[in-house]
Amino acid sequence: QVQLVQSGAEVKKPGASVKVSCKASGYTFTSYGISWVRQAPGQGLEWMGWISAYNGNTNYAQKLQGRVTMTTDTSTSTAYMELRSLRSDDTAVYYCARGGRHFHSDYWGQGTLVTVSS
Amino acid sequence: EIVLTQSPGTLSLSPGERATLSCRASQSVSSSYLAWYQQKPGQAPRLLIYGASSRATGIPDRFSGSGSGTDFTLTISRLEPEDFAVYYCQQYGSSPETFGQGTKVEIK
Q1: Which of B43, B47, B53 best probes binding to A when mutated, by most A CB atoms within 10 angstroms?
Q2: Taking 80 as the threshold, does the pLDDT of residue B31 lie above it?
Q3: Integer distance in angstroms from the first to the last C-alpha of chain B?
């Protein structure tokens, strides 16, 4: 069965970086992209970007350009999302999901809470 | 950027009633790349509908999606206790992909 398992919760200080992992299983990793979506406490869903697991092409939300990098490691079927220069308003649950770029997000990770606090 | 506006913000209904949720786009959504997700507290979103009207695997047939262009609807024919949750629409045909702000379906 398809599963996306994310890394554990993180607490970071403002200005630091965080790297969240998303390990996929149960399907051919390179056949689908991975989208990243975040949700601030009590708020709605915000699309962060997408990466092709086939060729590494990326598409980032404009507001995060320059601070976010999405990568994949096909040898371990793992996707990564790194966010730099963290601010308090980056506090959110970060989700990875299979799909994106004209494909619906049909399987989601369990979410990773990133807390940014001094 | 395509802005998705969901209405109503909150829907108060009783089990067994019909729920009709609306999602209106600021521009036409290409090829009906419109999905609906259900989210319960502390859980990840769950895909219900994709391509505007196709049910995802394992989704009960009381959930149905319709619409095209700029107007889309999610209908729950008879609410079950487990259907009380927040519902989001998403367009994934144009970059950036965008979500609506959500509709909360609560028990009346």
Answers
A1: B47
A2: no
A3: 35
